[in-house]
Amino acid sequence: MKIKPEEFKVLTQYIYKISGIFLDPSKAYLLETRLKSLLEQEKASSYLELYKKALADPTKRIEKAIIDAITTKETLFFRDQAPFDLLKFKILPDLIDRRSKTTSKHLPIKIRIWSAACSTGQEVYSIAIAIKETIPDLEKYNITILGTDISDEAIAKASYGKYNKFEIERGLPPDKLRKYFDPTPDGQWRIKDEIRFMANFRKINLMKPFSILGKFDIIFCRNVAIYFAPEDKKKLFERIAQVLQPDGYLIIGSTESLAGITDLFVPKRYLRAIFYQLKSFKG
């Protein structure tokens, strides 16, 4: 079913309000593609009727279904290897070196990592595997990874940590598959508990305050701000600056830049990767 211009306007305003995702008129095809099955499921005769049903639904079930349908779940294990090399060979060693100087010898070194817009969890588990391979004596550390996403469906899948053959083959080398995943009776693969227990997941809308999450040493916020309007990008990264430790690290997408968005961060390069640190940090 073709979406009418007035329906597109109403729906995109609604989607922006509930998720912060900005869709320009060139994305009409995306709405048609993503919402087609939901239209049939809800027996809505038009996109406008689907919108009205969503507004009238006190359980917000339809609203959640629209978010699940619209949010991009394009993800894979070790997507763009550079950030994970950066984590293993630059960020973790530097952080551990600094933290060891300020942490009592009797206490584990604490490092908190946040994967914002983690989708179905591949980035979170890639981070966990990279840490496992970098730090052999993990029991001496207190390293936690938080994965957040706006989609209930994505968070549920990430929490369970089970992936089909297609998802596994996207970015995961065979040696890592055998080492960190167990086959399941239905022909899929589930992340081993030793990796799964390193991560927690929760639903978060990045357009709303998230200071309740506390402070983080490392934040991955890759390929999500590209769906936000310029003023919302600025607000997002200003809020991220508030939850980043003074000497923390921010990693964004390889094709993204904070130039012209905010001056709170300074870009730095390591090998093929760019990372950001707060301008106030003089390290």
UniProtKB/TrEMBL annotation:
Residues 1-283 form the CheR-type methyltransferase domain. The keyword Nucleotide-binding does not apply. Its EC number is 2.1.1.80. It holds the Pfam family CheR. Keywords: Methyltransferase, S-adenosyl-L-methionine, Transferase. CDD domains: AdoMet_MTases. PROSITE patterns: CHER. GO terms for molecular function: protein-glutamate O-methyltransferase activity. Signal peptide: none annotated. It comes from the Bacteria. It catalyses: L-glutamyl-[protein] + S-adenosyl-L-methionine = [protein]-L-glutamate 5-O-methyl ester + S-adenosyl-L-homocysteine. One of its GO terms (biological process) is methylation. This is protein-glutamate O-methyltransferase. It comes from Desulfonauticus submarinus. The lineage of its organism: Bacteria, Pseudomonadati, Thermodesulfobacteriota, Desulfovibrionia, Desulfovibrionales.
